[in-house]
Amino acid sequence: MIVISTSSERRRLNKLILPLQQGPDLTLGQFLKTVGECCPQTAYAVKLRLHEMADGELKDMEYFFATLPTPFRAIDSEAYKTSVVGLFMRHMLLAYNKLSFSQVYKLYKALQQYYHSQFAQPGVSPVGIPGLAADNTDMDLTSTEDTMGERMEKDELDTTPLHESDLRNEDAPSRGPLSQKQAEYFLARQAYLLKNDENKALKPAALQDELNNMLKFNPDFAEAHYLSYLNSMRVQDIFISTHSLLHYFDRLILSGSEGKSNGDEGYGRSLRYAALNLAALHCRFGHYQQADLALQEAIRIAQESNDHVCLQHCLSWLYTLEQMKGSDSSVLTEDSVKMAAHFCLPYLASLGIQSLVQQGAVQGKTAHELMDAMKETDILHWKHSLSELIDISLAQTTSIWRMYGKSTMAQQQAQLLLNMSSLEQVNFGVHQNNTEAFAVILCHLAELHAEQGLYGAVSEILKHLKDQFPPHTQHAKLWMLCDLKIQFDRAMNDGKYHLAEPHVTAIAALNKTEGLYRKALVLKALNRTTEAYSILQRLQLYCEKTKYTEMIIRVMLATAELHWESSGFATALPLLLQALSLARQHHLQALASETILHLAFTQLMLGVPDQALGVLHEAMEPVLAHGAVMDKGRALLLAARCQVTIAGAQPDCQRHAALSLAAQTLGEAAAYFSMLDCKERLRDVHYLQARLHHTLGQTAERNKCAMLFRLLDQELPAPGAAVAMRL
Amino acid sequence: FGLSSGLTGIHVQYTLVLILSTKPCEFGDLVQIKKQLISVISLCKERGLVHSVKWASELAFALDPLPKNELPPPAIFTEEDCQDLDAFGLAKSYFDLKEYDRAAYFLRGCRSQKAYFLYMYSRYLSGEKKKDDETVDSLGPLEKGQVRNEALRELRVELSKKHSAGELDGFALYLYGVVLRKLDLLKEAVDVFVEATHALPLHWGAWLELCNLITNIEMLKALSLPDCWIKDFFMAHMYTELQMIKEALQKYQSLIEAGFSKSTYIISQIAVAYHNIRDIDQALALFNELREQDPFRIENMDTFSNLLYVRSMKPELSYLAHNLVEIDKYRVETCCVIGNYYSLRSQHEKAALYFQRALKLNPRCLGAWTLMGHEYMEMKNTSAAIQAYRHAIEVNKRDYRAWYGLGQTYEILKMPFYCLYYYRKAHQLRPNDSRMLVALGESYEKLSQQVEAKKCYWRAYSVGDVERMALLKLAKLHEQLNESDDAAQCYIIYIQDIFSCGEQLEHAEVSTALRYLGQYYFKNKHYDEASLCAQRCCDYNDAREEGKALLRQISQVRDQTETSSTDLFGPLSSNNTPVRRVSPLDLSSFTP
């Protein structure tokens, strides 16, 4: 019918056939635009043809359908009867021929409406009151499945690319009823966005409105209930989410009822998954007892019908639930992994392994075991393209490296995930998903930057996190805690304890253990020793019960510091040694180095500077390589103090060299502290420097340092703790 | 009487105004009421409002006939009426023949209020009729729910213009309200219906529409309604709808006392109210009376059949079904009755078929969906049952039977946790219905949540247990948990309960209770009570042997104690009693 002038146009049109045929319905304007971009002539011809029909009479449409079969016979035609378009046209023709007269008339009316909604022509509008009639003209016609009339025309005349921009426009809320395809597309897209990039999805209220509208026009559209369940989970609405979930499964049972009654595909299956989903829901809301009951029910039904796959899912939920309740579930997890591998469920298997790795890391399994396990699962992931699990695996590796105190490795893994492009097949231009893995990674990055004193970068990362994970979303707590921790540490380092105190309450709200620990730190800093001590004791007992090794070590260190304040250096020593052995056993390098610093300091105070320096050298390397700037400074300061003390006992000739070495070390420490702008410690350093230079007779340097000390001393209040009594 | 705006220059209303201005608010003047009814009947008849005519006529029929000179004068004709007379007559005849478009066409130039109403009303009905036809040959399954009455929007625009100009009379306001309701503009609709009742209190249709829109008692209290005798009918109806049965019955009683004792409408309403509170005997008596007075009545007969079903009165139900089929077999009520009839005869496929037919006749018939769900349950077709119940809930979210049915379905599928949600929903809607509480308790028991289960059973007993199972279950639960005192207490109350209600229940487990109590007293060394229980046990076949054995044991123990030390016996029986000692008198009053 229409002569397509160039072959490039023809190719572009051909490429459009499938997207148009399978994609959601378009409004006429969008349709003409997309066709026009490929081949303006065709678009014009389509418009003309439609105009003829819509402004003509019923017979014009009938004539159109009458001429439809002509190209079927011509073998070289675009619409030959076995071609894609031809098949579609024949399909449509069959549907058309089945229509009764009144239905044909209705179709014609719908076509007119479809046309005029685009090219509104006053006077032709079927209803007299344009204001009211305009509401429902949009999509009326497109809603019919078996008449496909208008879609046919598009195709028959060859069609257009589905640009992403066009699809975007589609999910703007529309008031009229949606057609099946539009609704399905809408649901699929929103569900995908909810899972991967919640910010781009419709706002909860708007989405709910849309869903309600959809359900009003087609109450049998069960998937909408499921999306409503997901949506109300976003706003933590247990009432609606339970309601929607149950409604969805009630509906699903209907649709599945044609199958075998209790077999794999029958409604027995949806019953099992219904119970399982209910368990997941309660789990999400933290109703562990309820979740447990629902899960048991799911397990029982699954056992009765021998559904191993479902059982496997149940098992993985079971260990998750146990983990959430805080009990040890590694045996369950191991079983789960074995069974999942047996039933060829790679997703569940590697999820189980990841969970095992996490537990193993906390329980002090050796690093190579963990890394091996991760490597194995990674192979599995790449083989099955489980992009979600790849993300999780990278995030987990980051966390493990971080736990071991290898900041460089952690940073490298984090960057790897951030720079990896998503593997999702249908990625609607989403570069970075907002899944938990990304939140974890970004938080780690923020903390790593904070350790290096790069607060500008930190605030940028946090801002990004805030944008990506708005406060009401599921993973927002991660960055909130991270943000608070960084602020707290900063305030403590600056000696602004009154600023740190309010953060403690906020931290405690997000993580009780962490909050308690930080509270003890503040109390200690404020010299409320007794209270701090009792808190630390309580915390240690609790952490030993829950096997939270990192915290145990930190608590021990804090307790040792408390002992220092009462000059109980000898009592601190066994505690520190215990902490050291714990840290070594769990490969927690950062904490081990920290402990060694403490140990060295204790030894220094006990009057064995040689020993102290020896011990210190052991920790110096890892601290300088991986440690935070603060730790580096502290280590160097400590080293300098050891050197000075040792030098005191040496003969004069050697002493001079030793002292100048110490002065040099102090200079390095001062550089680190000034990076953090940690004035209190800088003041100490400058004082020591001044004294050293004085002893060495370097007056100019001494004066310079003395001046710096004087400046800082004027600025700061009187020192809280004695300079010498602190690490 | 606030008609200042609506009635200026409307002479058709003149007669009504006359009637209403002398309106007695008391029921004393039945003659006046009768007069009002007669005139409103003729007004409604002219406008084709058949249901209101029927209601008013039924009521008028219940009152004594008027003497000839008391008859109200026919409506006064105005100039406009005269002009429109021929067109109106023609249009009315077309209207009666359901040729609505034709009627509207001939009425389009008329200026009288009466003609205007009929004009708009025909257009409305024409739209509705087309909508129904459309549903039959829609283009595809997706159009379901999308077919609408296309005329509604135009009607709304025209009517709202006239409404704001204050040119609508009572009937037109009613129509405006209906249009608004159909467009889901419920709030506006309520306002307009209230206005309509003020403008024309005697039009029952407006009241009835209002009734459908009021969802709770607060909303009802907030409305300002005209003070007229018809308001009492409305309130009574409203109370029934809101499940405030006691208030409703009071209202209806006062209406009967006021002189409407012969009204079949009131009798049927009272019967329905009794049905709602499960006072089956009263309801049955009233329905029988109703059938005597009005043997060809089909309305409410489905409720009647429900009652017959509950009582398993097969012959009566069969008679009713035959009778109704003879009257009209294509009525929703008839189909429901037949469905119930087959269900009672355990022919569930046929029953489901008839409920389906009822739904075809009226898809929004709530009862049929639920009943069909029950039938599918009987047929063990759980998925179809779930479907039916879900449909019922879609029609009315407050249908507790459907929620309960869903719960039962999942219980049958052995998902006790899953069904909790549904039972809870049902319980929310009927907080004082023991059946939901017992069901909840059973589910909790299956989930080993004994504390919750105990609470549910006890509550079920407290709100008045219909099936008298709650206490027994509670006692057994206590028994399981080794709380013997509590268990004994429950069994005692249970036994009292069973015997006080007089009738013999099939599932009564008095023997179990007696057996337990016998052992309990025996263990606590109350031999007198124990032997009493054991003797009672012997009245039941299943417990006879145990009763005898217990008696033997008791006599043995007694012999021993008497021979060994008579001194010990005294303190034993008086002091070592358990804390909650149960008086033996309780048992002596039992007469099985």
Give a brief description.
The complex is a heterodimer of chains A (727) and B (592). Chain A has 35 helices and no strands.
Q: Could you explain the architecture of this structure?
A:
- The complex is a heterodimer of chains A (727) and B (592).
- Among the domains of chain A are: 7-117, no CATH class; 200-413, Alpha Horseshoe (Serine Threonine Protein Phosphatase 5, Tetratricopeptide repeat), CATH 1.25.40.10; 641-726, no CATH class.
- Chain A has 35 helices and no strands.
- Chain A has helices spanning 7-22, 28-38, 40-55, 58-67, 84-98, 101-118, 130-133, 149-156, 164-170, 180-196, 204-217, 222-234, 238-255, 267-284, 288-304, 308-325, 330-342, 346-362, 367-384, 387-404, 407-419, 436-451, 455-468, 476-493, 497-510, 512-525, 529-546, 549-565, 569-585, 589-605, 609-626, 629-648, 652-676, 679-696, 699-715.
- Chain A is elongated, with a radius of gyration of 35 Å.
- The N and C termini of chain A lie far apart (89 Å).
- In chain A, 44% of the residues are buried.
- Residues 121-175 and 257-264 of chain A have low confidence and may be disordered.
- Among the domains of chain B are: 227-297, Tetratricopeptide repeat domain (Serine Threonine Protein Phosphatase 5, Tetratricopeptide repeat, Alpha Horseshoe), CATH 1.25.40.10; 506-559.
- In chain B, helix 6 packs parallel to helix 8 and helix 19 (348-361) packs antiparallel against helix 20.
- Chains A and B meet through helix 6, helix 13, helix 14 and helix 15 of A and helix 7, helix 21 and helix 23 of B.
Please give the most extensive interface between any two protein chains, plus how many residues each contributes: A-B, 47 and 32 residues
Quaternary status: heterodimer
Termini of chain B, distance in Å?
A: 65 Å
Report the average pLDDT across residues of chain B.
81
CATH homologous superfamily heading of the domain at 200-413 in chain A: Tetratricopeptide repeat domain
The overall strand count of chain B is 0
How big a fraction of the residues of chain B is strand? under 5%
Q: What summary fits the major beta sheet of chain A?
A: none
* Proportion of residues in β-strands of chain A: under 5%
CATH architectural arrangement of the domain at 200-413 in chain A: Alpha Horseshoe
Span from first to last CA of chain A? 89 Å
Shape of chain B: elongated
Helical/strand content category of chain B: mainly alpha
CATH class of the domain at 227-297 in chain B: Mainly Alpha
Please report the number of helical segments of chain A: 35
GO biological process, one term (chain B): positive regulation of mitotic metaphase/anaphase transition
Pfam families (chain B): ANAPC8, TPR_11, TPR_8
Pathway (chain B): Protein modification; protein ubiquitination
Domain Cdc23 (chain B): 32-271
